[in-house]
Amino acid sequence: MNNLRSKKKLFIKSYGCQMNVYDSERIKNLFEVKGFEETLKIDDADLIILNTCHIREKAAEKVYSDIGRINKIKKQEKNIKKNFKLVVAGCVAQAEGQEIIKRSPSVNFIVGPQSYHKLPDMISSDKDIINDDFLQQEKFKNLLFKSSKKVSEFITVQEGCDKFCSFCVVPYTRGSEFSRPVNEILNEINIYCDNGIKEIVLLGQNVNAYHGLNQNCKQVDLAYLINKIAEFDKIKRIRYMTSHPKDMSESLIECHGNNEKLMPFLHLPIQSGSTKVLKKMHRNHDVKKYFEIVDKLKSQRSDIALSSDFIVGFPGENDEDFDQTMKLIDQIKFVIAYSFMYSPRPGTPAANLKQIKLEVKKARLYALQTLLKEQQKSFNKNFVNKGIEVLFDRKGRYKNQYIGRSIYNQSVFIKSEKNLIGLIQKVQVIKSTDFALEARLSE
Q: 3-state class of 404 per DSSP?
């Protein structure tokens, strides 16, 4: 009896964006009904799934590094007789399927982000090694939706991209834009509501390009979907990401002013403050348009907090272009931002352009991140000795420590004898750091 295990063990690792986290949850759900339970230890696993990201070169190389590490674990004496199955899923699998087989023959199965619902059958039949078909409509109809039993839940409502930015692999790894029907999304949320979910985060490669069908088979936009979700009494907060400036419709901008459940925080990537560089990036908007959107958002919700993505060292970016980016950051004052040196992705148009020297990229990234860090620190300092509402979603590392998110998406730490998980509490901020707030319960 001691040498029998009631369930097989599944280890799954997610790389990259929140959509991969969502996909990993759905993969777990698919294997739960096949008798698997999750383990956090690779050594214990019968099935290992690496759900990958292909946005940057380092992300892809990390996958190959992890495969090498897993191979060493498999060769340990205690594991040598175990029949491990190793799966590479996600965007690296979609982009480099044959290369993975060639470079890492220990990988048993490869499945793309639009066909992972096929994975249980692939493993059962042990025939098809690769499935990289674009099956968005089929995929969502065959997924299982079980709540993660967390306070906040990701929901993918839109996938793919038709923008074809010159630096980006997403259109090639996630396919063309696809939006799920409204009722399908609402049914999924209803499942989560039964498990105590208080916040919904809507996901998409270009989530504000959402154009799903409602129950009357009429095409509707993201603002419509947000307003429908707000009708759930148990849902107290709604967020969405990642958005594209080109798809910031008037109705969505107005939603920020009219819908109290839509949080005053927006991730709106611009990538560069130079219109010349934006044109080279094929972003289909300019700096002037971006400022117009920001002004409209602030006219609807004056306290809205903005975050962005920035790429430095894009081919053709000169000192003047970079200065324009710094000027834009200084004017808008982002509360947080994600910034990277440009890294060429094979198969994208920008990969063929003349590259900027690494030392120039590094210097620009340092200057840009220094400014962004100061802005984030300044924003957080504004909350010291002030009250703010926080939704607490997890315990911290220390005794009686709880962590939550403010309405502006800041991490907030607090000590409390009371269990705060799942509660929205008014707190008093007593200290700020570069990345978070420390608080106490308001009296």
A: strand
Show Cβ contacts of residue 219 under 8 Å, excluding neighbours closer than 6 positions.
211, 212, 213
CB-neighbour burial class of residue 56 (10 A; exposed 0-12, middle 13-18, buried 19+): middle
270-284: b (≥16 Cβ within 10 Å) or e: bbbbbbbbbebbebe
pLDDT, tens digit, 9 for 90 and up, residues 1-24:
344 456 899 999 998 888 889 999
Helix, strand, coil shares of the chain, percent, nearest 5, are 40, 25, 40
Q: Please name the amino acid found at residue 431.
A: K
209 and 241 Cβ atoms separated by less than 8 Å: no
Q: Which CATH number fits domain 387-441: 2.40.50.140, 1.20.140.10, 3.40.190.10, 2.10.109.10?
A: 2.40.50.140
| Cα–Cα dist 135/117, whole Å | 9
Q: In angstroms, how far apart are the furthest CA atoms of the chain?
A: 72
Which residues in 96-116 are b (16+ Cβ under 10 Å) and which e? bbeebeeebeebbbbbbbbbb
3-state secondary structure 56-115: CHHHHHHHHHHHHHHHHHHCCCCCCCCCCEEEEEEHHHHHHHHHHHHHCCCCCEEECCCC
Angle, vertex CA 122, rays to CA 126 and CA 149, nearest 5 = 130
The answer to whether 241 touches 247, Cβ cutoff 8 Å, is no
* Segment 55-80 mean pLDDT: 78
Q: Is residue 51 a contact partner of residue 90, using CB atoms and an 8 Å limit?
A: yes
Say what the pLDDT of residue 80 is. 63
Q: Where are the beta strands (DSSP E) in 329-419?
A: 336-341, 387-395, 401-406, 411-415
Cβ-proximal residues to 405 (8 Å cutoff; 6+ apart), any chain: 152, 199, 390, 391, 393, 411, 412
Task: Name the CATH architecture for the domain at 294-381.
Answer: 2-Layer Sandwich (3.30)
